[in-house]
Amino acid sequence: MAESLTVETPSGKGKGDENFPVGSFLIRRDLRVHVHAFYRFARIADDIADNPALSAEEKVQRLDRMEAVLDGAPGDESPAATGMRASLFQTGTTFQHCRDILHAFRMDAAKLRYDDWADLMNYCRYSASPVGRQLLDLHGESQDTWPPSDALCSALQVLNHLQDCAEDHRNLDRVYLPRQDLDACGASIPELQAGSLSSGLRCVIDRLLDNTDRLIAEARNLAPRVKSPGLRRECAVIVNLAARLSGHLRRGDPLAARVKLRPLDFAAALLIGVWRGR
After folding, report:
1. 110, 144, 168 - which closes a domain
2. 210 in the same domain as 102
3. In sequence order, what are the residues at sequence separation of 6 or more whose Cβ sits closer than 8 angstroms to the Cβ of residue 239?
4. Which residue among 103, 161, 229, 238 sits deepest, i.e. has the most Cβ atoms within 10 Å of its Cβ?
């Protein structure tokens, strides 16, 4: 790829499209710019992997170039990677979480189906867990916080997969619903093209939500382990948002309409989270 061309393909999605706050007022003011830099880096990598106009090979090439720029290669094709590199040097945090994110989106470029829950969790290890780990590292938290953080981030990732299951299949032929669960429920991938959930797909989603709720239960151990007051409260807020979104997906139909959090959910989660994270 010519160095004069940008590798970034922004989708227009931003912090307001997420199910969780990104660098909110609860985060230390001096760290918010670094949280935003990491979010931008991950968002740009995600946009490349989700771009239906690019082939799998083109996506991997662009993600490889992002990593090269992150590592200090000359060129300005990826402002997000350049900014992330500067942030990492300023804060002294590891490059590994960024590398893990890029690994996940290289997987997305070529891997369109998942065998079982363990296969999906392996993907979340690279696509979701680094987000929480980066935030914890920025605050100087112990790695003892990683297991419940990984559980929370994986739960949020699966919830997002369920929200977008029809769109992912329609636009990218990518299906995160594991084959094992589809088979157990007598469901098939073509049913994602319908305008509403079949009984089989409802069964699949409920099975995945059962596993996700267990992750959320584990994630409730995160806030008590976090020392930074603001981050502790934000973690409690996000756990509450995950539980609320899981409930909405239990009652909703993501094929008929996007199931999402409402302003009331965010307000209630903030109040409850601040109280629980006190």
Report:
1. 110
2. no
3. 152, 216, 219, 220, 222, 223, 273
4. 238
